[in-house]
């Protein structure tokens, strides 16, 4: 396997993949998390906590590996390292970033109150690409990157209910 290279082409690929896809995989603290994101002004933004996606400990990390996959086939295309920082309410980036997140976020109950809710209960993280690549299209690892699902409190309701009176399947009369 060749060493991944970083150049203008991979910078453009990073930007294009981040714009075209809305989900990436973030690796930090020894775990990988699927994350919904937006791309704005040469950086990736994710929101977590509160009623949003769980990304435990992202506010405490400084470097994140971002795995970008093809929107069509789901295959890995690029893995880059980014510097993570928290965008706080009152920062100059807060208003434009939360406006972009609100416009891209599906199924929000109250569009007008979303930014205020995020300021209280969530964390907006900015991930800026560095010049360091882990994998590039011409140097992908053979590792499958399989992992066990994270522990969760979520459970199933139990066994499915039995159906007592099924309709009889009508077979065609052959004679």
Shape: extended
In N-to-C order, the SSE pattern is HEEEEEEHHE
Q: How many domains is the backbone divided into?
A: 1
Name of the CATH class:
Mainly Beta
Instruction: Please state how the strands of the largest beta sheet are arranged side by side.
Output: 2-1-5-6-7-4-3
Computed structural class: alpha+beta
Q: Count the helices. How many?
A: 3
How does this model look, in words?
- The chain has 175 residues and is an alpha+beta fold.
- The chain has one domain (8-135): Electron Transport, Fmn-binding Protein, Chain A (Pnp Oxidase, Chain A), CATH 2.30.110.10.
- Helices cover 18% and strands 30% of the residues.
- The protein contains 3 helices and 7 strands.
- A 7-stranded antiparallel sheet has the order 2-1-5-6-7-4-3.
- Strand 3 and strand 4 (43-48) form a beta hairpin.
Short description:
This protein has 175 residues and is α+β, with helices and mostly antiparallel strands.
Features:
3 helices, extended, Pnp Oxidase, Chain A, 175 residues, seven-stranded antiparallel beta sheet, 30% strand, alpha+beta
Topology:
Blueprint: H1 8-20, E1 23-28, E2 31-36, E3 38-40, E4 43-48, E5 63-69, E6 76-87, H2 94-104, H3 114-121, E7 123-135
Antiparallel strand pairs: 1-2, 1-5, 3-4, 4-7, 5-6, 6-7
């Amino acid at each position: 396997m060749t060493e991944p290279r970083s150049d203008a082409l991979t910078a453009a690929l990073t930007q294009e993949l981040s714009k075209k896809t809305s989900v990436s995989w973030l690796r930090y603290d020894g775990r990988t998390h699927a994350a919904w994101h937006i791309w704005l002004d040469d950086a990736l933004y994710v929101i977590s906590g509160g009623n949003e996606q769980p990304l435990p400990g992202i506010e405490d990390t400084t470097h994140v590996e971002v795995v970008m996959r093809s929107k069509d086939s789901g295959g890995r295309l690029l893995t880059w390292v980014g510097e993570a920082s928290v965008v706080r309410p009152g920062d100059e980036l807060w208003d434009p970033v939360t406006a972009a997140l609100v416009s891209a976020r599906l199924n929000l109950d109250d569009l007008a109150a979303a930014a205020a809710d995020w300021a209280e209960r969530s964390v907006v993280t900015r991930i800026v690409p560095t010049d360091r690549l882990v994998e590039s299209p011409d140097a992908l690892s053979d590792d499958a990157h399989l992992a066990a699902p994270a522990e969760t409190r979520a459970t199933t309701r139990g066994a499915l209910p039995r159906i007592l009176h099924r309709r009889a399947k009508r077979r065609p009369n052959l004679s």
